[in-house]
Specification:
This protein folds into five domains: 167 residues, no CATH class; 198 residues; 112 residues, Beta-Lactamase; 158 residues, Reverse transcriptase/Diguanylate cyclase domain (Alpha-Beta Plaits, 2-Layer Sandwich); 248 residues, EAL domain (TIM Barrel, Alpha-Beta Barrel). 50% of the residues lie in helices and 21% in strands. The protein contains 33 helices and 33 strands. Helix 22 crosses helix 23. It comes from Faunimonas pinastri. Keywords: Membrane, Signal, Transmembrane, Transmembrane helix. It holds the Pfam family 7TMR-DISM_7TM.
């Protein structure tokens, strides 16, 4: 045997292997003549290089020699990815084949970060011969390869990225047949999807039901998805492979969102529980975020959409089964379509994870998606058109009457007189808690279930109808339920007379009116009782007092005694703690007083803070005094509401009744005595005296008349209390105060004549007088001051002035006539006043502010202190009540003051603190940032002449 040539060839091979380092020669893939397609996906070698070139060893040729070739990338200066394979032609004929790398494959595309497709092959370089010709296609990278007889050629494929999901070698005719075979299928599926989307959109216009737009949106999403998947979209818009990723990911996100919207809308999930709405909103927000991510990374957005589709299928199936078990017809009808959807999701998961990898899986999944939309469309059409116009035409007259009764909530009641058998619908038995047939039986059985107070009347009506053989039954009565309670029903029936002239039966309808009766009783209760405390109101009190007086006249028994209780300073409770606390205090007062009265006595709430009692259990003066004193003592005990302990007292008026007078007159007498006790300081008992009451009324009329004369004759004057600026301890402004010097009675305090002015309506005239006088004198002081530090004057405004429509015109006229500097004429308004009508007050104050007047919020912290409203009112100054400034050595005082001052500054307001009576108070307020103080420490109210001298030569307190 000649071994020399063989040894030489082996040595050459070993040498070449040594040159190639770690490279190993490729094994060439034989290409048979009759093979239609060869899968090269797993037969290629993959190379990832950090440079723009790759060196590979070729497959051994016909001479057995392995060569080393170097291929440069078409994209220089960067890393590159390569795939290498070798083909051999063992035949003696030339072979032409197509190398096909699809841009997108659903199979093995992945779930979380799916491969959405792109250009796969950049170039193909053979080890010998000319480079393969590229065939243009929008769905794949295709290169035409020619193999000469006996040739072995190594191909180096430059990849666009490291992903190469599929690589096939096709016979040209076989590939064309494969593409054409799916073209018809793709056209049919796309046509069905488009027609479904269009049909459902038209149905929405015609029917207008909410489920149609949701289903139409799902159908359009499926149409868009299949258009992208089948390449139809690319042919119309000529998308680049990079843009195809964006559109493919977008259609998957759209499909996931449309499925969630359809499930939520079709099942009316918002009607079952609000949490369904919350979950749906959060779900859709997540998909909206996925739409945003789509611009940055379509793969991540598509992964979120695919997870959403799977979760929607699983969670939707659970919700559908849950609602179906509760006999919800929509859920029951959706089960078949949703079962197909779950099966489709499972199949899609097997495909994208590579568990199944048949070439027909991808078009089958797209077709299955269209099938699901068809099933859903059939389901909603069946539901939406069930009971439509055609069905309505088939309803008989009897069925229409039955439906009308059901719609009206009525049930059938029938009494077969000849058989003496009463029957009622199951609806009534269910309302009463009886089993089926629980109301059936003879008439006496039905009558035994009636309330004892209704039995005799109902029996008489039945007997009359049967005896007279005519008439109608229209009765309201109570029936005993299974648990022993009585429910109200109304029966409307009429007798049916037979051929013999006798009543055969009575038939009609029976309705449940229990809710209406309860509402009626509640209205009756509210008409004669106080809504808050449940005590009798003024009308019921007068009725009971009139009855007691009549009984006293008729039977000669002891006359009743009337006590009226007026709570002292209760208005300050509402202003300081709010109306909710005030209501709680009222409830506590009502309970305390009720416990002290006996059964024959009556306690009522007349109005607001006024209570009244009819005492029948005591007739002696000592006993009545003891009852009144005991009730006053009970009211003095602290009432705890939350963290507050509230102490009250009462002014009590005692009226001894006269049987010859009306109840209204008796009550007015006791009320007059109570008001007299309150006028004398409160917390005392006053016995009604006709002469005293006459003197009180005469005194008030006389004071009102003299007040009118004082206004006309100049008896009313203004005094001014300084307001000091803490930065320089100089007067910055003044508060105008009304003063009345009576010619015979001397000085009458405002606490006495202001209430009379408010009751008589003179407060408006007083307020206008104060505004005009203060503005005129302020203009004179400002004329003597040079520079920008003009003094200001604050004027108190009453609620009657604020709520009048003329206040804006009054302010405008005063400022025009006097010419005071803008912002120096300030109107002081309390929190309680603006809260009487906050909307109207806000508009009025805004107009006044626009005219140049200042606005000051007086007594801040003693009323509502509503920050929401405070921000809406255009105040420029806040006056802190003296109760916050002068409250002893409380450790919380600096905290409260600091918070109020900081709040005012945040809202752009200045702060005036009332009640600064010591140097320590002033210094602390200055350190907290307060701008102004007002108190007797800096001066008592003074006349206009004294203010004029002070403005000329201001004097500051020593620091």
């Amino acid at each position: 045997m000649h071994v020399g040539p063989i040894v030489k060839r082996l040595l050459v091979l070993l040498f070449l292997v040594g040159l190639s380092g770690h490279a190993v020669a490729l094994e060439a893939i034989s290409v048979p003549l009759d093979a239609k397609t060869i899968d090269l996906t797993h037969a290629v070698e993959r190379h990832s290089e950090q440079t723009d070139k790759v060196q590979v060893s070729t497959a051994p040729g016909a001479d057995g020699i392995v060569r080393r070739i170097e291929v440069h990338s078409s994209r220089p200066d960067g890393p590159s990815d390569w795939a290498v394979f070798a083909l051999s032609n063992p035949s003696d004929e030339q072979i032409d084949r197509l190398l096909v790398a699809p841009h997108y494959q659903l199979i093995r595309s992945g779930v979380l970060w799916p491969d959405l497709g792109s250009q796969r092959v950049v170039a193909v370089t053979p080890s010998e011969g000319f480079p393969p010709e590229q065939v243009q296609s929008g769905q794949a990278d295709i290169y035409r390869i020619t193999l000469d007889p006996g040739a072995v050629i190594t191909f180096v494929v430059e990849l666009h990225s490291e992903a190469l999901p599929q690589l096939h070698l096709w016979q040209p005719d076989a590939y064309e047949d494969s593409v054409n075979s799916y073209t018809l299928y793709h056209g049919i599926v796309l046509g069905i999807a488009g027609l479904l989307a269009l049909f459902l959109s038209v149905l929405f216009v015609v029917k207008g039901t909410a489920m149609f737009p949701a289903t139409a949106a799902l159908a359009w999403a499926v149409f868009a998805y299949t258009s992208i998947d089948f390449g139809f979209w690319n042919r119309i818009f000529a998308l680049a492979p990079a843009n195809e990723q964006f559109w493919r990911g977008g259609t998957e996100v759209l499909l996931a969102g449309a499925l969630v919207v359809f499930l939520y809308t079709y099942l009316h999930l918002h009607r079952w529980h609000v949490r369904y709405s919350h979950i749906a909103i959060l779900w859709l927000l997540g998909l909206i975020v996925a739409f945003g991510i789509l611009v940055v990374d379509p793969s991540v957005a598509a992964g979120l959409a695919r997870m959403s589709l799977g979760l929607t299928a699983v969670v939707g199936l659970a919700v559908i089964l849950f609602l179906a078990l509760r006999n919800f017809d929509r859920a029951i009808m959706l089960i078949p379509a949703w079962a197909v959807l779950v099966f489709w999701v499972v199949g899609s998961w097997l495909a994208v994870t590579g568990k199944i990898h048949y070439s027909a899986v991808q078009p089958a999944i797209a077709g299955g998606l269209v099938l699901i939309v068809m099933l859903i469309a059939f389901t909603i059409m069946q539901h939406a058109f069930a009971g439509g116009a055609l069905a309505q035409g088939l309803i008989s007259d009897a069925e229409q009457k039955a439906l009308a009764m059901v719609g009206a909530g009525d049930a059938v009641w029938d009494w077969d007189v000849s058989r003496d058998r009463v029957e009622a619908s199951r609806q009534v038995e269910h309302s009463l808690g009886y089993p089926p047939g629980g109301l059936e039986g003879p008439a006496r059985h039905f009558l035994s279930l009636l309330h004892p107070g209704d039995q005799e009347r109902f029996t008489a009506v039945l007997d009359a109808v049967v005896t007279q053989r005519r008439g109608r039954i229209n009765q309201a009565f109570r029936l005993r339920s299974a648990d022993g309670h009585y429910l109200w029903f109304t029966l409307r029936a009429r007798p049916i007379v037979g051929t013999d002239g006798e009543v055969m039966r009575c038939t009609g309808t029976i309705s449940d009116i229990n809710d209406a009766k309860i509402a009626e009783e509640r209205l009756m209760q509210d008409a004669i009782h106080d809504n808050l405390t449940g005590l009798p109101n003024r009308q019921l009190f007068l009725d009971r007092l009139q009855f007691a007086l009549a009984r006293s006249r008729a039977e000669g028994v002891a006359e009743p005694t009337v006590l009226v209780f007026l709570l002292d300073r209760f208005k300050s409770v509402n202003e300081r703690f709010g109306h909710s606390v005030g209501d709680s205090v009222m409830l506590a007062v009502g309970r305390r007083l009720s416990r002290l009265l006996r059964e024959q006595d009556t306690l009522a709430r007349l109005q607001g803070d006024a209570f009244a009692a009819i005492i029948l259990s005591e007739t002696s003066q000592d006993g009545l005094d003891a009852v009144a004193a005991e009730m006053m003592s009970a009211l003095k005990t602290a009432i705890s509401v939350g963290e507050h302990d509230i102490f009250l007292s009462a002014s009590v008026g005692m009226g001894f009744t006269d049987p010859q007078q009306s109840a209204e007159a008796q009550l007015q007498g006791a009320e007059t005595a109570a008001y007299n006790a309150k006028r004398q300081g409160g917390d005392q008992i006053e016995t009604y005296s006709g002469a005293a009451a006459t003197n009180i009324r005469a005194s008030r009329f006389e004071l009102e008349a003299e007040l009118r004369k004082a206004l006309d004759g100049g008896g009313i004057e203004l005094a001014y209390q300084p307001i000091i600026k803490l930065s320089d301890r100089l007067p910055a402004g003044f508060e105008a105060l009304l003063r009345w010097e009576h010619p015979t009675r001397g000085k009458i305090p405002p606490s006495e004549f202001i209430p009379v002015a408010e009751e008589s309506g003179l407060i408006v005239q007083l307020g206008l007088f104060a505004m005009e006088r203060a503005a005129r004198e302020l203009a004179g002081w400002q004329a003597m001051v040079e520079g920008e530090n003009m003094p200001f004057v604050s004027i108190n405004v009453s609620s009657q002035q604020l709520l009048r429509h003329d206040l804006i015109n009054d302010v405008k006229a005063v400022m025009t006539r006097t010419g005071v500097a803008p912002g120096t004429l300030k109107l002081e308004i309390t929190e309680t006043m603006v809260m009487q009508n906050p909307e109207y007050a806000s508009k009025v104050l805004a107009r006044i502010k626009e005219m140049g007047a200042g606005l000051s919020l007086d007594d801040f912290g003693t009323g509502y202190s509503s920050l929401a409203y405070l921000e809406r009112f255009p105040f420029d100054t806040i006056k802190i009540d003296r109760s916050f400034v002068h409250c002893g050595e409380s450790q919380t005082r600096p905290i409260i003051l600091r918070s109020v001052i900081a709040l005012a500054h945040e809202l752009g307001m200045e702060v005036i603190a009332e009640g600064a009576e010591t140097e320590s108070d002033t210094e602390q307020l200055r350190q907290l940032g307060c701008e102004y103080v007002q108190g007797f420490y800096y001066g008592r109210p003074m006349t206009a002449q004294m203010v004029q001298q002070l403005v000329r030569r201001p004097v500051a307190r020593a620091s």
